[in-house]
UniProtKB/TrEMBL annotation:
InterPro entries: AP_endonuc_1, AP_endonuclease_F1_CS, Endo/exonu/phosph_ase_sf, Endo/exonuclease/phosphatase, ExoIII-like. This is Exodeoxyribonuclease III. Probably binds two magnesium or manganese ions per subunit. One of its GO terms (biological process) is DNA repair. The active site is at 106, 147 (proton donor/acceptor), 248 (proton acceptor). It holds the Pfam family Exo_endo_phos. Belongs to the DNA repair enzymes AP/ExoA family. The record marks 248 as: Interaction with DNA substrate. The record marks 218 as: Important for catalytic activity.
């Protein structure tokens, strides 16, 4: 099974890129972030025509998450992260797809800091940590995939010194990510490439993409029973090279699923 996450940075304007990627790479499950479209603006017919079912939570101009499942309709189990009834941002959706419980998330960026946006980022992270532990403890196959807006270590960025003030590299952000991993989750891309510098995001400034001045902020965290079945993981860099591309590239993991009895 191939599971992927992709911050599309606007599903309406980059729908051709998304469809080209789905046709070429054919992930079994794809988690999308930053739809930047209301629910009624989600291109369901085009997704169906590409061979995928979908659940989504949209928001006009901002945020928005979706889960696509090849050859079937994912079964939605949750469409917001618990812990704050006042939070109306579309940043989390969860569904059962191909026998795996998939949580698709778009964690807040947190800039500028200090300030309310960084406080919101950390509070959202704490809610995720609180929710993820009992999810992991179920023993069910689970993937938490998305744009975490966290650079886990200095090895995950081309040059940390120019980003020291950014919310993505703050000690509080990194500590929260480490505490999430400490529950037992496996960072699939890092597990598959323990000694390589792998990037998933290149911003639009100063020729960062042509110069490969990237960051790793898109992560797929696997439950224990999936982590031991990893076959490969990587980044579809060719998508970032398309004209007017998203500043993210799709990130994926492939693992062997256990045989079902019967």
């Amino acid at each position: 099974m191939k599971m992927a996450t992709f911050n599309v940075n606007g599903i309406t304007s980059r729908l051709p890129h998304l469809l080209e990627w789905l046709e070429r790479e054919q992930p079994d499950v794809a988690c999308l972030q930053e739809l930047k479209a209301p629910d009624r603006g989600f291109p369901l017919q085009a997704i169906h025509d590409a061979g995928y079912g979908a659940v989504w939570s949209g928001q006009a101009s901002w945020n928005g998450v979706a889960i696509l499942s090849r050859g079937e309709d994912p079964i939605e189990s949750r469409r917001s992260l618990p812990g704050d009834a006042r939070d109306v941002h579309s940043r989390y959706i969860e569904a059962l797809a191909h026998g795996v419980l998939v949580g698709c998330l778009y964690l807040p960026n947190g800039n500028p800091r200090p300030g309310p946006k960084f406080d919101y980022k950390l509070a959202w992270f704490e809610r995720l940590i609180a929710y993820a532990q009992p999810l992991f403890d179920t023993g069910y196959p689970v993937v938490l995939a998305g744009d975490y807006n966290v650079v886990p270590t200095d090895a995950d960025i081309y040059d940390p010194k120019n980003w020291r003030r950014d919310a993505l590299l703050q000690p509080e952000s990194r500590d929260a990510y480490e505490r999430l991993l400490a529950q037992g989750w496996t960072d699939a891309l890092r597990a598959a490439h323990p000694n390589e510098q792998v990037f998933t995001f290149w911003d639009y400034f100063r020729q960062h993409w042509p110069r490969n001045r990237g960051l790793r902020i898109d992560h797929l965290l696997l439950s224990a029973n999936l982590a031991k079945r990893i076959k490969a993981a990587g980044v579809d860099r060719w998508v970032r090279d398309l004209p007017k591309a998203s500043d993210h590239a799709p990130t994926w993991v492939e693992f062997a699923m256990p045989r079902r009895n019967g």
